[in-house]
């Protein structure tokens, strides 16, 4: 596993590179280098949820991305994090995670949440969830039962949800799933440095 640090948004995670015994060698392309929330690419027309970094392996069809966005009030109704469930957090993130001009509930219908749980690490809550997406990008097969399989972790800072997701297509899940689970489990917020730019700073700025 290799380490990735984003000082602009103050988080880190580990990502798989190779495992000779499992015949795995991932060739990563950093498709989106770390950038501040205000200039990051939006995932939906309302631009609430944005991709602040992303890496892709085109051969094995693996994507690891980090997004930041405010909670969706339709699913997270309390400001008290102790009242949040992993399912509520998952629904909040997934409802905003779409490029389609549809309602939040329609976006949510694109995804099927399989498992959720939460854990407190170093005083911070992390919510974990596993889900399938019916409309998988980088489609390599015409089989209707092929989905994109995701693992994700979300935590909160300064009123925004920080989420990592790692995914591949379902035929490759058995081989790659355990490595993606390690990546998602390693996601941590870092103590901000002078390079940190909070999401609420200069929301109008695009450079």
TrEMBL record:
InterPro entries: Mog1/PsbP_a/b/a-sand (IPR016123), PsbP_C (IPR002683). GO terms for molecular function: calcium ion binding. It comes from the Eukaryota. One of its GO terms (biological process) is photosynthesis. GO terms for cellular component: extrinsic component of membrane; photosystem II oxygen evolving complex. SUPFAM superfamilies: Mog1p/PsbP-like. Residues 4-188 form the PsbP C-terminal domain. This is PsbP C-terminal domain-containing protein. It comes from Sphenostylis stenocarpa.
